[in-house]
Amino acid sequence: MSDTRDLEKVRADIDALDQEIQTLINRRAQCAERVAAIKLAEVVTAHERGETGAEVIFYRPEREAQVLQRIISRNSGPLDGTTMAHIFREIMSACLALEKPLQVAYLGPEGTFTQAATVKHFGHAAVCVPQTTIDAVFTQVESGECNYGVVPVENSTEGMVSHTLDIFMDSSLKISGEVEMKIGLHLLVAPNTSEEKITRICAHQQALGQCRSWLDKHWPQVEREAVSSNGEAARLAAQTPGVAAVAGDMAAEIYQLEKLSTHIEDYIDNTTRFLIIGREEVAPSGSDKTSIIVSSRNKPGALFAILEPFRRGDVSLTRIDTRPSRTEKWAYVFFIEFEGHLHDTKIAAIMTELEEQAIMLKPLGSYPQALL
For residues 98 and 85, what is the distance between their CA atoms, to the nearest angstrom? Predict the structure, then answer.
């Protein structure tokens, strides 16, 4: 009897806490509405002064990153800091939707890891708008049809997504953030599909590469076809007899597919990194990365000359990759990522030095480092 009374008391405490949490979340939402009203009033005032280019910017990546970092730092458990940050991200997503729901383009169709990365970064209140190609994601953001876009940029197994890098050369968009997703791949089939009926395995080229050894071992005789996305592969598997798809949990759920084999990726820490692209520059958050494109003259020591200012400035490089130049035969451009923000005095000095010796220098943006 004592145990029953104790359980009832704990449940009563939980109910009281739930009510308090709900009240506080709604108070936070009211603050978000006040923020929206203040921003709108500032833009109206700017227009009255003749500043016709002023527009309301509801989403501030650096502000969100700072809030999440504080949540992780002050968390005392028993929930871990990352779990608590995910909870608050959804709260912030819902509150932001009261101001204006974000329209976010991503590489579709539904069920891709890019969609999962979009939800992870922006929360479920954002409106996810699928696109058939990476080019179309850029176009949607450039035109203003969508506020932001999400595109894959590199995988820990297969390396850089070259097409994403190439588009940045001509695009005016900025990088606003990054998302890292651990990738779990499954072999998916339509319900009641037996192994002997499978004649083709479809997936994005990167996904096929990420499970190449497993496929070589278990399905060496079956044709593999690279398609535009894993979501498209799942759609084909759901509609086309004999087709199996390599895709993730979201695709399996959306297209109601069965898992013939699970976690077929060749490396258990298989991770893909995605970039958030937008039209505005992002202010410093305190823990930032910067990405640039730089091209130098084709002469001995050219790469050393580009990298030397970073060494002298004690700036840590996080990524360097090369792509062929589109303007000169056998010439290359370098994609470089490093810690720090373009507004930092030390980084600004390095950029000035690079401008003096490079044929071309294009900053792609500074943005908060991935937290979750």
Answer: 20
